[in-house]
Amino acid sequence: MTNGSNKRGDGNLQSMLVGAMMRKIKSRTWKKQRYFKLQDDCMTIWYKSKKAGNAHSTFSVSEVEAVREGHQSEVLLSIANEFPANRCFTLVFRGRKGNLDLVAESAEEAQSWIRGIRKLIENVENMGEREKLDQWISDWFKKADKDRDGRMNFKEVRDLLKMMNVDMNEHHALRLFTLADKSCSGSLEDDEFVLFYKMLTQREDVLTVFQEFSSDGQTLSHRDLEDFLREEQLEGDNVQQHAMHLIEQYEPSETAKMLNIMTFDGFLMYLSSTEGSIFNPQQRGIYQNMTLPLCHYFISSSHNTYLMEDQLRGQSSVEGYIRALNRGCRCVEVDCWDGPSGEPIVYHGHTFTSKILFKDVVTTVGNYAFKVSEYPVILSIENHCSVEQQRVMARHLSHILGEKLLRKPLDGHASTGLPSPENLKGKILVKAKKIGGLEENIGALVEDSMSGEVSDDDDVAEMEEENLPGVAHPFLSVQSFFVSFHPKKSKQCLSKELSDCVIYCKSFHFRSFKHSQMHSKFYEVASFTESKARKYLKESGAEFVQHNSRQLTRVYPTGFRTDSSNFHPQEMWNAGCQIVALNFQTAGEGMDLNDGLFSQNGCCGYVLKPSFMRQTKSGFDPETPQKQEDYQPVLLTIQVISGQQLPKVNIKEGSIVDPLVRVEIHGVPMDQAKQETRYIENNGFNPVWQDSLRFTIHTPELALVRFVVEDYDKTSKNDFVGQYTVPLTCMQQGYRHIHLLSRDGTSIPPSSLFVHVRITEV
């Protein structure tokens, strides 16, 4: 069952198959030897300590996102004097799983593992659907083959069915087992197990669709496939060519290809592929106009990016910036305070969160800003530093970021509007307070070192909301309470050097929409807590939308969210707020919606707002979408047909999932809705629902559709199984598979839902 044989010729993989003793590093003091070895499947890495007896750990290469060479993590930097960079490397896992920091015995051995794992990651990424499925079957075979004899008896098969979430009566299981046991040996070997698996996963639901369109009941002719694409998948353009492409791409039988027909296997491969998925592949890459002003885009944004856990005691780490930027985040936050030895530090002030150096944050942002997206990154600085340390901050920004830092307006003179993401490619913008306006930056930059005063109303407003005097907050100093009680007297001194680093994103204190319309400049950015933004949204939604058509707005979580939970970002997007800052470290609905919205347009972190939110004269109010000029509601009908190989969530022996599917609409208040299928008892392997759910959607351009699978429990809260979130405008119609994601946002192949989608105008 191994797919490793064809890879064994590789020298690096050869030495990984032999294995090596390496040090696993968790901190400056925790450095322990572990024996690491690549398993024969060339997919699993196994390791154990000398003392642990038989106890060992494993992880799959498919869980590894990247390999970093040298001292590329905080842990390895802390022991840099002890172990040279050429022996050190870091494995970075997908989702929120912590890194694995390793030190090899020699530089050669480190290189062998670095190159080997990179090669394996590349192999995984290049796997076709068929290979992924073969790999999945192979993994199950290994789990079930308890005595490691390369064959499975009936007891092992019965145990395997439980592990796979299948509740099958013994008689039926024995019948399938006997049918698959071609050699009549009383056990299943490689090919026999694949046959058993195929009988187990027979897709009656897809077969019904296939036979409905097949002229002879056996295959789809070119004409049959065209009819299917036109009538069911609603693909009007170039159907003839598309049908040819699908046969060429997905049909496994060479004979069928020559006859220009598609067998059932080819049809199933197509429906299980990215082309057969619910997300329109044409909207995966960058397809939107990127030449409009910055304020016309939703921008993927992170709150207190340095925090890895909660807001009070959690660890601060540059790893938070790496993870956020690698997820396409384009606005990261830095809270700066005076540090020892004249070096500014970053942490959540007045709390017990750990501290990191500002210069390390800037270095990290410089290194990772443009790895997954070339569009601009905004560095949102909350500045609590003295003038002296602000000058140090400005020096670090200039020296470390160099040309990447935007130091003056693009065209050399103050324009009348914000530049576009396209014009700002490869640039890092600083968002912070500024002395005077953008005009100060025209011509020469810093003539002499000086400082100026700015009103601290802005930060005081934040402090008032975050610290709320009168509410017991265990980590606040007397000084912050004092500031909250006396906001009007507060002034902050700014260094001119730091002020000059702020070009298009000047933090300003918001008074009212009317005041902003008359007095504020296009480069001024208001910041609101979620509760303040909600208040404005309820009181004057249309004015809020208009304000956001002219300038940027940032919304961040209230200070009560000490557990780093997230608010509902959709509310803020409904008002056209661009910088909706979420705690990226916290999995859940908020981040699912963020990942869903920004999964389109090349995952570049910028999504163009609908046209009715970009017009300054727009009368759009999210509370009353039916009053909009081009109001056109749609009816969304989703038939939830079946599920495939849902992951097991309850580790209790013998427990099997009772799955239900909930479809949620996230959009303007009138569109917020959710409906559920019934639950299917004891079948997480191939449940069939055939339930239809219908939604009227008033503002389709803003709607996100979230599919959630849960394990029904009548006595307590349902357990989460998987989810997938997609913008309504990116949904393909017809028969589609939805490839589910884990709570962490990582894929869990081959878990999927099979649905039928129709969107019709009301």
In short, what is this structure?
The chain has 22 helices and 28 strands.
Structure explained in plain terms:
The structure is a single chain. The protein has 762 residues and is α+β, with helices and mostly antiparallel strands. Helices cover 30% and strands 23% of the residues. It is built from 22 helices and 28 strands. The strands form five sheets. An eleven-stranded mixed beta sheet has the order 11-10-9-12-13-16-17-18-19-8-20. The protein has a seven-stranded antiparallel beta sheet with strand order 4-3-2-1-7-6-5. A four-stranded antiparallel beta sheet has the order 24-21-28-27. The longest helix is centred in the C-terminal third of the chain and has 21 residues, at 530-550. It is globular and about 90 Å long. This is Phosphoinositide phospholipase C.
In percent, how helical is the residue content? 25-40%
Q: Radius of gyration, Cα only, in angstroms? A: 28 Å
Low-confidence stretches: 1-6, 444-448, 457-489
Strand order in the sheet with the most strands: 11-10-9-12-13-16-17-18-19-8-20
Report the principal-axis shape: globular
Proportion of strand residues = 15-25%
The largest sheet, given as strand count, sense and whether it forms a barrel, is:
11 strands, mixed
The helix count comes to 22
User: By helix and strand content, what is the structural category?
Assistant: alpha+beta
What's the total count of β strands? 28
Distance between the termini: 53 Å
Mean pLDDT: 88
